Amino acid sequence: MDTGFIFKLLNETLVLILLISGPALIASLGIGLLISVFQATTQIQEQTLTFVPKIVVTFLALALTGPWLVSQLVVFTQRVYSLIPRIAGG
């Protein structure tokens, strides 16, 4: 097992982390931006106004993309498990 293999596996892991966290983060960012624009135009500066919509949209994004996220995790996990003999073999 060489360092190139380890770096490739680490790179794939980090890309998968970004893919899995992306939908929830983008949805939360988008609703946060919309709420900020709404607060700026109406001059309502209530801090708690942003929490509930962000939570709802984040859970909605996770519910909608959940099957795809789980399939990505399953494929990656199966691939890593199949690499165990190569890793253990040196």
Helical percentage: over 70%
Describe the largest sheet. none
Q: What is the C-alpha radius of gyration, as a whole number of Å? A: 20 Å
Indicate the low-confidence ranges by residue numbers: none
The total strand number stands at: 0
Strand content: under 5%
Shape label: elongated
Q: What distance separates the N and C termini?
A: 5 Å
Care to describe what's here?
This protein is an all-alpha fold. The protein has one domain (3-89). Helix content is 87%, strand content 0%. It is built from three helices and no strands. It has helices at residues 3-42, 51-82, 84-89. Helix 1 runs antiparallel to helix 2 (51-82). The radius of gyration is 20 Å and the shape is elongated.
Topology:
Layout: H1 3-42, H2 51-82, H3 84-89
Helix pairs in contact: 1-2
Quick synopsis:
The protein is mostly helical. Helix content is 87%, strand content 0%.
Notable traits:
90 residues, mainly alpha, 87% helix, elongated
